[in-house]
């Protein structure tokens, strides 16, 4: 650790612990003078070559050492790469969590699995309702993404306003009908923005990201024309996508069953909270699905990333307890591969074709659209907030560089755009901003109940 730690200077420190220079395990500490606010706490999945790791989590050493200064964990949305590591942090420290109702619902499912429900304080937040917290005022604002209830976060400090977009795209026709709230964002922008941290995942993509709406058409075609069973694989946390599958199944008078524990749990929770709507008699347990005629059922399954233990992978490898592929089956892989997973997914798709199924995936059909802004939307976000300083977040290094260049082109002063990576400390005051040191972070992996720490090799 460099000497900035010893300096008594007051100001704002931005410290990313994951997600900057890599995809996944997003986590950022924002220190306002002595108070610390954490944004997100997610996992990253290994590529298919790594078999001894279930997932990676951020290195919590620094936040645990400074836990008495942490005021809150603010969560942008309920995807694994933003909430997956929370139970591992909450085993060591007790801090109140703030998130939207669906985000908290998904967190609650995890806390239950880890036996942490009783000791964790979860606070539901509404968009555009300011919350006083220590010396700052926090306000969440609604953004569109591939999950309902996704939020960006505004932190109003004595030095100015900090904006964190979370993951976002600009969608005028999202599945839940809650479009991007430009009014709320421009209201926040009106008072001036000291720093904008914005999602860089698709900063290499020109133009605009298509709306979720286009999937409906593809699903209608695939499910409508299928003669036999339809299996749709997606992420267990893609709540909106599951609703689209359910709506299409209803349209073609098919019942729905679910394969995969995490998906069963999430659907149960999301139904209870009203985020997934499906009539009782339309949802059937997996072991009863056999009794239903092939052309009357849609199976929602985990495994869109080729994860070894997921339902689709086990189906493809002919070792699923209830499901075996037969000719006439239609499979839809509704997800785009997370970098590193391409081979595992391709292998799964090969195996499914080999067994006589017809497979639709992002390369041969419009069955997936991702949830991140392309370059025109990123420019819009920068123009809307007109920040004094800019940090590209959520992306591998080249994504951060592409986004930084875009910010400079969009009018942010070139010396006030900072490409920083995990562990870097950006120090902000009224007069100045700059990288003021680095906190060493290890690579921390989880396999079953075992957590291991390794020295991080940046070139691997
Ligand atoms: Zn996300
Ligand atoms: Zn993400």
Tell me about this structure.
InterPro entries: Metallo-B-lactamas, RibonucZ/Hydroxyglut_hydro, RMMBL, RNase_J, RNase_J_2, RNase_J_b_CASP. It holds the Pfam family RNase_J_b_CASP. One of its GO terms (molecular function) is RNA binding. Residues 24-199 form the Metallo-beta-lactamase domain. The protein is of the alpha/beta class and 460 residues long. It has 12 helices and 24 strands. The protein folds into 2 domains: 3-207 and 370-454, Metallo-beta-lactamase, Chain A, CATH 3.60.15.10; 216-360, Rossmann fold, CATH 3.40.50. Strands 8-7-6-4-3-1-21-22 form an 8-stranded mixed beta sheet. Strands 9-10-11-12-13-19 form a 6-stranded mixed beta sheet. It has a 5-stranded parallel beta sheet with strand order 15-16-14-17-18, with helices on both faces. Helix 4 (101-113) packs across helix 8 and helix 6 packs across helix 7 (239-251). The longest helix has 13 residues, at 101-113. It starts with 11 loop residues before the first strand and ends in a 6-residue tail after the last strand. The model has no long low-confidence stretch (mean pLDDT 93). Bound molecules: zinc ion (2 copies).
